[in-house]
## 1
Amino acid sequence: ASAKKSSYDILTLTTWLLKQEQAGVIDNEMTIVLASISTACKQIASLVQRAPISNLTGVQGAVNVQGEDQKKLDVVSNEVFSNCLKSSGRTGVIASEEEDVPVAVEESYSGNYVVVFDPLDGSSNIDAAVSTGSIFGIYSPNDECLADIDDNGALDSIEQRCIVNVCQPGSNLLAAGYCMYSSSVIFVLTVGTGVYVFTLDPMYGEFVLTQEKVQIPKAGKIYAFNEGNYALWDDKLKQYMDSLKEPGDSGKPYSARYIGSLVGDFHRTLLYGGIYGYPRDKKSKNGKLRLLYECAPMSFIVEQAGGKGSDGHQRILDITPTEIHQRVPLYIGSVEEVDKVEKFLA
Ligand code: P6P
C-alpha cells in the first residue's frame, strides 16, 4: 500500500534530483552540477536581497565584453557561479556572459559537462529592487565536432577546444533552467522530461517543488516588448504590434507587461501565456539577447512546456552559435502567439 502522504511530504530539489538519477534520467555528475548551480543561486539570492545594505548596488566601474557597464553584482554573481561550478569537480568548460572567452576548468576530476550561464540577467533592475535572474544551460562536451577537427589536425589551443565545446545548437542541451530573484525565489528546471518549478523556503534554505510538468497556455493576451524601439522596427513588425492593439474577435486588445528582465517576463509568460519579444532593429541588427546563455536555455524550457522559441523565422534550438556572445532576435511564449508574429514577419 502506498505510504500515507504526510503533511510533511515535501519534495526538495535535492531529493528530486536524486529521484531523477535513480530513474536513470540524469547521471551522478549531472546531479552534482545541478546541485552546485542551485547553491550558487541561493547565494546570489541572498546577495541580491541585501544589496542596498551591503553596498552591492551600483556599477563596478568596468565594462564587460558586451560593452555594458558591469554592476557590482554582475561581477560577484559571476564569481559565485564560477566558483560553485568549479568546486563541483564535474564541469569541463564554463562560458559566462561576463567572461570574454569560455574557461577550461582544471578542478574537474569526474565528468566534464559544459555549462553556459548568465549569472545575473536584468542587473540594471538591481538598484530599484526589481526582479532579476540567473540563466543556465548544460551540454555534454562536443566530442564529435572535436574529433572531426582533430582528424584534420586543425585544432591546437585549449581556448579553441573550449569554444568548440560551447558552440552547440540548443537542441543538444541536456538541462536548462533559471532562478528568478523576485517576491519569491523561484528555481525552474528541465532535464528533458518536462518543466519543474521549485520555490525557496527561506525557513530552511531549500528549494521545494511547487509545480511539476508546467504547460504554457496555447495562447495568451499579454505581450512583453520594449515598444520604445517601435520607430526602429521593420514595417512588418510594426503591423504585428499594431494588430495587438485592435479589440479583435474577443473585443479586448492585448495587455502590455514589460519588466525589463528576461527571467521575470519569461516566467510570467510561461505561467500565464502570451509572448515575450526582443526583435532586431535598425540599431541592433541581431537584437540584444545572446543565443548561447539566454535564448537557447529559455527556448529549451518553453518547448518542454509546450511553447515555442523563434528568431522570427526559425526555431532557436536549431541555430548553432558561431561565436559565444552571438545575439539573435527572440520571440518566445505560447505557440499561437509566436506563430502569429512569424506570419507577420514572413
Ligand atoms: P531593454 C537585460 O539587460 C536584458 O538582457 C533582458 O533581461 C531584458 O529583457 C532586456 O535586456 C531589456 O532590454 O533594451 O528593453 O532595456
Note: The chain has nine helices and 15 strands.
## 2
Amino acid sequence: MDAINKEPEALEAAFQAKVDAEQRIEPKDWMPEKYRQTLIRQMSQHAHSEVVGMLPEGNWLTRAPSLKRKAILMAKIQDEGGHGLYLYSAAETLGISRDEMFEQLHSGKAKYSTIFNYPTLSWADIGAIGWLVDGAAIVNQIALCRCSYGPYARAMIRICKEESFHQRQGYEIMMTMAQGTKEQREMAQDALNRWWWPTLMMFGPHDRESAHSGQSMKWKIKRQSNDDLRQKFIDATVPQAEFLGLRIPDDKLKWNEERGHYDFGEIDWEEFRSVVNGNGLCNRERLQARVDAHDGGRWVREAALAHAAKKEARKVEAA
Ligand code: FAQ
C-alpha cells in the first residue's frame, strides 16, 4: 500500500517492522519525525566533532618532531575533515541544510564531543589522541556501521577504516616515547594521565542517565549502550597500556574474573557536565576558531558561487 494512504499508526508499525527485520531505512522512505530529528541531532553532532576535532591536533602541525611525523599528522587531520564532510552530506539527506547545521554549531546550540575541549600540551598528546580518542571513536563507530539509517551506516564503514589507521599511528607514537628516554616516558605517562578520563566520557552518560538511548536502541540507531561500549573500550585498552609499560590513572581498575571485564572507578560527571555546558578548558577557543574559519572562508564560497553562475550563464548564451 502507498505510504500516503496509510494511517500514522500503521506507518509507524510498518517502519518498526522494517527496522526489526534489519532492513535499512533510506532517505526517501517514510520515517517518524522523531527518528529523523534524532538522526539529525546525532549525525550533525558527530560531524561537528570531527571538524572541531581537527583543532587540538592542528596545534602540533608546526611542531611535529620530524618531517615524516608532520606528513602523517597532516594526513590524519585531513581525514577528520573528510569524515565531517561525509557526515554533513549524510545528514543533509534528512532535509537539513549544511548552513543550518553550521549555524547551530556556531551559535552554541549544537553539541560536539567533550573530548575536543581539552588542550594538547605536549607531542605525547598527539600519540594519546590517536591511541585513546580514535580508539574510543572506533569502538563507538563499529556499532554505528549497523545503524538502521543507510547513509549513516555506510559513511561509518569508510570512516572506521580510516580511524583504524589513526589509532595505530597514535599507538606507534606512544610506543616510540614509552621506549625512549626517561623524559619521553614521563611525557607519555603524563599524556595518558590527562586523556584517560576525558576519553571515557566520550561514550556519554551512564545508561540510566542517557535521555536518548532507549528510543535510539529501539530504532537501531544505537546498537550498543553507552556503558557497554565504554566497557568494551576499557577491556581492549588496558592490555595495550600494559604493553607500553604505562599505568592507567585509576586505582580501582582491576580485572574481575566473575564478570570477565575490568572494574573501574567512577567518572567525574561534574566535569563532564561542565564541559558539555561550555565551561571546559578550551570550549570558547574551539568555537571561536570555527566561527573565524567560517567567516574567513566566506569570500571563497562567494567566489565559487559567482564562478559557477558565470559558467552557467555562458552555457546558456552559447546554446
Ligand atoms: N560530548 O542520551 P545520550 C571522533 C550529550 S568522533 C558532548 O546518551 P546519545 C573522531 C548527548 O549529545 C567523536 N555531548 O545521547 C575523531 C545528549 O545531548 P542532547 C564523536 C555528549 O546521542 C578522533 C546528552 O548528552 N562521536 O572522535 C557526550 O543517545 C580524533 C544525553 O546523552 C560521535 O559523535 C559527549 N561526550 O548518545 C576526530 C559518535 N555524550 O543532544 C578527531 C556518534 C553525550 O540531548 C580526532 N554519537 N552527550 O542535547 C553517538 O554515538 C551518541 O550521540 C553518543 C551519545 C554516544 C555520543
Note: The first strand starts at residue 254 and ends at 256.
